[in-house]
Each structure stands twice: as C-alpha cells, then as structure tokens.
Design brief:
The protein has about 700 residues and is an alpha/beta fold. The chain is about 45% helix and about 15% strand. Strand 6 and strand 7 form a beta hairpin. Helix 3 packs across helix 4, helix 4 packs antiparallel against helix 5 and helix 9 runs antiparallel to helix 10. The radius of gyration is 31 Å and the shape is globular. About 45% of the residues are buried.
Length: about 700
C-alpha cells in the first residue's frame, strides 16, 4: 500500500506540472506557494508535446505500468534539473524515490506485478529478456541501493541535527533546507541517524522518525520537502534495511526471527481443520505461523464470502467476485496442507478424520463445518424453495428468477404470467431482507425495455416473516425503517405469518394460497452433522454443545466453532451464527492450541464481542447497529459497502466488486444475466440443502 501511495503522490505532482506548462499557469500568483516543480518541465520537454509526454508518464507510474521505464525517464529529468538548472531538496528526494522504482519496480498493487508472469513467458519481442533483466537488476542491485538510501538519509539527518553547513561540492547531493524544524530534537535525530546507517533496528527507527515528522507537520512546523523525506523513510520501514545491514545479518544468523522454517513437519503436532469458511480460514491463518502441521479440509476448493451471495443470485455479481481459492491463500505457508474432500465421519478413539476410505490423523481437531438450510421438518419443500448457502444455490436462484421473466414473455394466460412474476421470499432476517430488496430493484430498474409483452416493474415481490418484525437481531426502530424502505421499493411485507405448504404452484400462508412459481427460502438453518460424527449432544438446530473454551465435552483436543457450535458466550446468550463470531472463534481456538503446546495456562472462556449488525435494502438504503449507535439510509449504505469490500478476500475481488457496484449505481445496469443449468419447469432439481452441506 505504501508503494502505491508513493507512486500516486509522485504521479500527481508531475502530472500537475505538465498541466501548468500546457496552460501556461506557471507564473500565476495563486500558485506561487504551491510546491509543483513547474520549471522542471523546461529542460527535457520545452514544447507542449513534451509537456503532454510528461503528463502521460505519471499516468503510467500511477497505474504501475512499465514502471521502471517511466521512473527512469523521470529520474533523468530530475537529475538534469538538479545539476544543471535548479537545485532543490525536492529534486533530491524525488531522484531517490524514482531510483527505487527503477531498480525494484512497482509493488503488488500494480499492473506490472499483475502481468509479470504472463509477460515473462510470452511471444512478444524482447519480453522474456527484459523480464529476466529486471529480475536480475532487483536481485543484485537492491541491497546496494537500500544501503545507499540509508546512508543518504543518515547524512541528511546528521547535517540537520548538528547544524553543520554543507560543503559546496555536496550542496546538490544533500538536502539543505528540509527538516529545518527538526533541530529541537537533535538527540533523536542523531540516534536514529546512526541506527539507520548501521541498519540496526532500522524499521523502528524509521517509524519513530515518520511519527515525529508527521506530528510536527500536523502542527504546521514542517515544509513541503519533508513529505518526500517521510516517503523515503517509508521505504526503509516497509522493505527493511536490506541484506547489507546488521538487521539482515541477524535475521540470516537466526532464522527463527526471520520467519524461515525451523522445524520438520514430521516432528510437530498435527492440527486438522474441517471447513474453509470464516472460522476455519481464520484459525488456519493464525496457526500457519506456529510449529504445527495444519491440514485444512473442505469439500470446495474455494473460500466463499457468503454475505454477498445474494448479489450473485440477483445477477449483480459473478461467483468469482466473492470466492477465492484456498490453496492460493496458503501457498506461502509450507506447514499448511489443503485437501479437497467431504468428511464422512470422525474416529475420536484413533483420532482420525474420515474422508471416505482415507484416514487423516490429528492431535488437535477443529470443526468449522457451517450450516445448511432448515425446512423445519419439511425437506420436501427444498426442490420448490431453494435456500442460499452455496454458489450452486445462488446460480440456481438466479436461473429461476431470470427464467421466470423469459416464460412470462411467452405466456398467453394473464393468470399464468402473474404467477410467474410473483416472487416470494420466506424469512425476514438479513438474507431475506437483502434478497427481497435486490429482486425489487432488479425488476424495477434492471430490465427496462427488455420485454415487450409485459412491464417487468409489474412483478410482485413478497417477503414473509413469522416474527412480529423484520431483522429480529436489530433494534426495533431499525426493523421498522427496514420495513418502510422495502415497501418504498414495492416489496409486500407480510408479518406474523407462517408458511404451511410449498409446491410448484406457490405457497400456503395462514390457510391462504399465494400463486408463485419462484419461492426462495431464507427462514432457518441447521448445523452440519458434526454432532453425529462426534456422538455428542446437540441443540434443536444440530449445533454441538461445547464447553466455555469451545472444546467438545470429554474431548479436550476437539474444538467446534462458527455455526456448528452452541455456546452461551454473548453476555449469557447464545453466540449468533455470524461471520464475526466464526472468526473470533477461530482466533480463540488457535490461541488455545498455542498455549497448550507451549505449556502455558489456559486463557479465559470464550466471550463473543458483537461488532455490530448490518443489512442493506436496495439502492442507497441500509440499516446498521453498532453498540447502541444506530444508522440508516445512505450513510449506513456506504458503511455497509466499505465494510463488505474490506472483508473480501483478495485484491482482484475487491476491485471487481467495487467496479460492478459503481457501474450498476450510475447506470442501473447489472452484470451479464446468463441463464445456465437444468430446466426447472418441472421443479425437479434438488438444491444443496437435500444433497448435503455447504461445508464438509
């Protein structure tokens, strides 16, 4: 991230310089106090064409595309200006930063990094040669350049802190005026200068300097050049002092400090985690840095971000936008093994996990197997009212919704068409509310002018809730606001009503039949068969009754977390089946295992910390509750979006989701609405609720 911010800052400064040159604004009175290097444009780009080129180069730098060449151009420009035209402190710092990008290239958040592997194995002329050359330059020159940066920073700090004058021969090589206000703390400057020069605890020293300078900048006592000084220090803090330093020598001599493998997998305890959901993934990530052998088992090869699954069902997002491969997440951890398979049982006597005929031994077992749909004893409803727990479920629901419109276009009977255009959602929790709101937006805004025999906006969306209000876990005021928001979208909200029967013709509600060809289930869940595998007690939803430390009674080395566990750890109440609860459980169990292996006392009982509740209701509307602070409307909607994007796994997913949301928000257009899968005219396909669970 720091690498990206530095590139964006440098690109902004030089881009604005090009704009000022093209429009001849370099002498404008209101720009006299702005630190934009307008005169720098003259030496190498005296014409408007040259200024335009200087505007394109920063764009390339900001995108991280051909970063080394863009930085090389700017480095030459800066050095020519510094030594032949106008010596400035900003020139020096810019040169150092551009030199870094020439030698090291752009970081992970760049197009170069994204395309590097493909370009290195392509038929483009010189692509392979240039890629290998860039790799060699980074490998052999980076340590020396890191040493040069440290020595240059230390010399600048020494000059400023001691008040010494710079010799005329060095006046263009060392900053003369920057950090002038840093002199009130000469001891700090001298100490940090020596630490940075030697490369000893260089990261903390750089961090101390950054905090001190930023603090003085807030009080208005530092100049513009110090922004560049902070960015240069950030290179030391981010990438370390390099191999040619005391820190590098210490890390090489003591591999356990440097994070290198120091143990054999044959000699360490075996931890098996079943389920790659939020809880299992978090637990595995915490254990990946410990001397244990971790085996992560899941029936899918991906981690699914379930809170956005409803947007896949309504064609707002692609399945790939909310999923990430599990192997890719742990490819850098040698002690984490990922297995694809479906658990069929657990032998607690031999301490083995059964995957068909395969037996996976364990010393510690963590079950994070999630939950599936519960039809309250009416599993025959599953084929007519699919739930939403897996990608397969979402794709199936999307197919049913889109197919309903296609059949309505061909329907001749108005009654039949109305049945096709009636969408019923059973369950008024977050999933039901979000699904109803998104379907209502789809029918009113996403299909305009696409059908000629009927108006898609005439479709009917009905949300059925058995409780007296929607969103029972939210404060009552927010429940009422959610209800009003849904009704403004045209959703019919029916409260205090129970579904008594579902078939292909519709639903029976309070002895009244509602004709509908598309019924969706969001009313209840049932835990995975973990309790049956362990032969232990469970609650009515199938959740394993665990001890306060999340272990199974009588099995201190077996833990259950997430939707599969029942524990009164939320101020005396059961922990809800939410992603934050699963993640907190994963962290807690990882710490418990670590303490056991280290022989330390057990930690206090697990206590769930409720971070808040969020639910979105269509465009610009959402509700949020955080420790007594309630929000609704557009502010809650923005907060909901930012939190969900931040929690997504993988940069590609975050960028893709943000782009899709931004495009849909401005144009009212959704993603490509493909209808895939089997024909459901007979209602014959059985969703995952009947076939099995979304987790192993």
């Amino acid at each position: 991230m720091a690498d990206l911010l530095i590139r964006l800052w440098l690109a902004k400064v030089f881009f604005v310089s090009g704009v000022l040159k093209i429009f001849d604004l370099s002498n404008a009175p209101y720009l006299s106090h702005v630190a934009y290097p307008v005169p720098w444009v003259e030496p190498l780009s005296p014409t408007y064409l040259g200024a335009a080129i200087q505007m394109l180069i920063p764009v390339s730098l900001a995108l991280g595309l051909a970063t080394r060449w863009a930085a090389l151009y700017m480095l030459i420009l800066v050095l020519v200006v510094q030594f032949n035209y106008l010596a400035l402190d900003i020139n020096l710092y810019s040169a150092v930063l551009f030199g870094w990008f020439v030698i090291c290239g752009a970081g992970p958040l760049s197009l170069d990094h994204l395309l590097a592997r493909g370009l290195g194995d392509t038929a483009l002329p010189f692509a392979t040669t240039l890629t290998r050359l860039a790799t060699a330059v980074t490998r052999y020159l980076k340590p020396f350049y890191q040493l040069l940066i440290r020595l240059w920073l230390s010399a600048a700090l020494l000059v400023v802190s001691t008040g010494a004058s710079i010799p005329v021969s060095l006046v263009k090589l060392l900053p003369e005026k920057s950090l002038a206000h840093f002199t009130p703390t000469p001891t700090m400057a001298l100490t940090c200068a020596m630490l940075v020069a030697l490369g000893f605890v260089a990261r903390p020293a750089a961090l101390v300097l950054i905090v001190a300078i930023v603090g003085m900048h807030i009080t208005g006592s530092v100049g513009p050049a110090d922004v560049y000084f902070v960015m240069t220090l950030a290179l030391v803090g981010l990438y370390g002092p390099g191999k040619l330093s005391l820190d590098g020598w210490i890390l090489g001599a003591l591999p356990q400090i440097g994070g290198k493998p120091t143990f054999s997998l044959e000699e360490v305890p075996r931890v098996v985690i079943v389920g790659a959901g939020f809880g299992g993934l978090t637990c595995a990530a915490k254990l990946a840095k410990m001397p244990v052998q971790v085996t992560l088992i899941d029936r899918h090869n991906y981690h699914l971000f379930q809170p956005l699954l409803y947007q896949v069902a309504t064609a707002s997002l692609s399945p790939a936008d909310i999923a990430a491969t599990v192997r890719g997440l742990f490819c850098d951890h040698f002690n984490v093994r990922v297995l694809l398979g479906q658990v069929t049982g657990i032998d607690t006597v031999q301490q083995e996990v059964l995957i068909g005929r395969r037996h996976i031994p364990y010393d510690h077992l963590v079950l994070a197997t999630g939950a599936s749909h519960s039809y309250f004893g009416h599993d025959e409803w599953a084929s007519y009212a699919p739930g939403l727990k897996t990608i397969d479920d979402a794709v199936e629901i999307r197919r049913r919704i889109l197919s309903a419109f296609e059949r309505a276009e061909a329907a001749e009977d108005p009654i039949d068409r109305q049945s096709l255009l009636t969408f019923v959602i059973v369950g008024g929790g977050p999933t039901g509310v979000e699904l109803a709101g998104d379907i209502a937006e789809l029918v009113r805004y996403g299909m305009e002018k696409e059908f000629h025999h009927f108006d898609p906006a005439s479709a009917r969306v009905v949300l059925i809730q058995s409780a007296p209000r929607l969103l029972p876990l939210f404060p009552e005021t927010l429940s009422e606001k959610a209800k009003r928001s849904l009704e403004r979208l045209g959703v019919e909200v029916i409260l205090k009503s129970k579904v008594k029967h579902i078939d292909r013709e519709g639903v029976l509600i309070n002895d009244k039949h509602l004709a509908s060809r598309t019924v969706l289930w969001a009313a209840g869940v049932v835990a995975s068969p973990a309790a049956q595998w362990l032969h232990t007690s469970a609650d009515r939803s199938g959740r394993v009754r665990v001890e306060p430390d999340l272990s199974v009674p009588g099995l201190p080395n077996v833990f259950v977390i997430g939707d599969t566990a029942f524990v009164n750890a939320w101020k005396g109440k059961p922990v809800p089946g939410l992603a934050p609860a699963a993640k907190q459980g994963g962290v807690y169990v990882a710490r418990t295992i670590r303490r056991k292996l280290q022989g330390r006392p057990a930690q206090p009982p697990f206590a769930y910390r409720h971070m808040g509740s969020l639910a979105t209701i269509g465009r610009k509307a959402a509700v949020a509750s955080f420790n007594g602070v309630n929000m609704s409307g557009a502010p809650a909607w923005w907060l909901w979006g930012m939190i969900h994007v931040a929690l997504l796994v993988g940069l590609r997913n975050r960028i893709s989701v943000m782009f899709n949301w931004f495009w849909a928000y401005l144009t009212f257009k959704r993603g490509t609405r493909l209808i895939t899968g089997d024909d459901l005219s007979s209602g014959g396909k059985i969703p995952s609720a009947v076939k099995g669970f979304d987790q192993p």
